[in-house]
Amino acid sequence: MTFLPLLKSVFRREMQLAYRRRSDLANPLLFFLIVVVLFPLGVTPDMTKLADMAPGVLWVGALLANLLSLDLLFRSDYEDGSLEQMLLASLPPTSLVLCKVWVHWLVTGLPLTIMAPLLSIMLGLPGNALPLLMLTLALGTLSLSLIGSIGAALTVGLQKGGLLLTLLIMPLFVPVIIFGTGAVQAQVAGLPWQAHLAMLAAMTTGSLALSPLLTVAALRIAVGD
Amino acid sequence: MGAFDSFSAFLAMGDHGVYVWSAYAVGAAVIAFNVITPRLHRQRLISDHKRRMRREQR
Amino acid sequence: MWQAFVRWFHKWSSPKWFYTMSQPWSFWLGWAATLIIASALVWGLMFAPVERLQGNSYRIIFIHVPSAFLSQAIYAAIAVLGLVGLVWKMKLAFFVAKQCIPVGASMALLALVTGAIWGKPTWGTWWEWDARLTSMLVLLLLYFGLWALHNAMERPESGDRAAAILALVGVVNLPIIKFSVEWWNTLHQPATLKFTEAPPMHPSMLIPFLMAIVGFYLASMAWVLMRTRLEILQRERKSRWVEDELNRFAEGQ
């Protein structure tokens, strides 16, 4: 088979697998909802104060939800041996990793982005910031999935990889969350936000270029043992 | 004594004694950590080796 | 010339050769470091003049800045060694990289704690989300991540390679993290807490300061060499010469 049909069939397989694990897919979304609900309960129900925090709270919630789902990115493929087959296939493994990450974003990052407006109303975020919030979340969660795939690949062979994954990857998420919340906060405050967005987009494209290579290298270590 | 009039002035560090000396105490602790942990590691290697030797003799 | 270099490189990449040759090195480096650090600190604590703006609290600089330098230099070294190990499949580079982690982490911790202590008399608060403190905290977390990854892997060889990849990711990210934290910091923090531009140091402060930096470099090298030698003994314990060496240790004890 040639490149594109093969990639398409991989994509279809990933989507099918994701569909069969629908309950797993709902978990990050529920987690996002609960984290966001906890903030007013834990900090303050005052809507004006919440509005100040809203971009940060939504971003932290989305980041944690994304992190929670990353552990499953390669796990089932690793356990049933299909990952080994994929790395040996005629397809370049980087394109395969990209395909998997793309599907991961479609089933977590995108739903999180779509859910964000609802939760932002509950936190009293001004309505005019909504489009930018969604745009930064869409771009940012893709970048989180890409960077996170390296961590997921490094910990795939471990029994209790989840917590370790958090420790490994969290420091690398720092710039993403800074530029993501920065853009939204700047817009709410009436400041120019374009530079933040441009930086976030640069991070996403940069991770798009680099992370698949490292993810493949990490997967080879896991499979090689 | 250099920049200080007396030993007690040296210890006081012009009201900043607590900060300076606690910082240096942490510094000493870090140096001690770096000196002592290799020693402990070495001892563990040796005792592991001895145990292995004993097992092999049996 | 080139061939001589390659031969020299191969020699040093053999764990046994490294083990034998590094022994005097760690000894002399350790003593030189002790001497230099001791004289730098005595000079810095007792004889350097009082700083005009900060009073005596500035004397923390003699351990704060060297440890901050070292924590970053060691992280860079880990990444370079990891790359060498991955590209040339050199075991020894991985051993050194692994044993750099605790030394670097302890330096990052020292820089953070002394920074916080210094912050109290200077800024009036222990912790400030200052750009440098924050990025140092991230660096410490990266170190912890590397160490945790080493410990989590069942086979040390895969731990080596996994940690090398993580170190490379981290080293690409560190400048971005630094930049982003600085950017974020200027938005969030009033500039009043920033240090005023440091005046050029008087030689009587500068000399002990530079000596402390050199001393910390030498001490870190000595510690890494010492740790690497033990790592070699542990990882190569099945080979004949290591067994002999351990027997010698056991008898001497």
Topology of helices and strands:
The complex is a heterotrimer of chains A (225), B (58) and C (253).
Chain A: H1 3-20, H2 22-42, H3 47-70, H4 75-79, H5 82-88, H6 93-122, H7 130-154, H8 161-169, H9 174-188, H10 194-224
Helix pairs in contact in A: 1-6, 2-3, 2-6, 3-6, 3-7, 3-9, 6-7, 6-10, 7-8, 7-9, 7-10, 9-10
Chain B: H1 7-12, H2 17-57
Chain C: H1 2-12, H2 15-47, H3 61-88, H4 91-123, H5 131-152, H6 156-188, H7 203-235, H8 240-252
Helix pairs in contact in C: 2-7, 3-4, 3-6, 3-7, 4-5, 4-6, 4-7, 5-6
Describe this protein's structure:
The complex is a heterotrimer of chains A (about 220), B (about 60) and C (about 250). Chain A is an all-alpha fold and about 220 residues long. Chain A has helices at about 5-20, 20-40, 45-70, 75-80, 80-90, 95-120, 130-155, 160-170, 175-190, 195-225. Helix content of chain A is about 80%, strand content about 0%. In chain A, helix 6 (about 95-120) crosses helix 10 (about 195-225). Chain B has about 60 residues and is mainly α. Chain B has a domain at about 20-55. Chain C is mostly helical. Chain C has one domain (about 25-45, about 55-190, about 200-240). The longest helix of chain C has about 35 residues, at about 15-45. Chain C is globular. Classes of the chains: A mainly alpha (about 220), B mainly alpha (about 60), C mainly alpha (about 250).
Average pLDDT for all residues of chain C: 86
Helical content of chain A (DSSP H or I, runs of 4+): over 70%
* Radius of gyration of chain A using CA atoms only: 18 Å
Please state the overall shape of chain A, judged from the principal axes of the Cα atoms. Answer: elongated
Low-confidence stretches of chain C: 190-194
Number of strands of chain A: 0
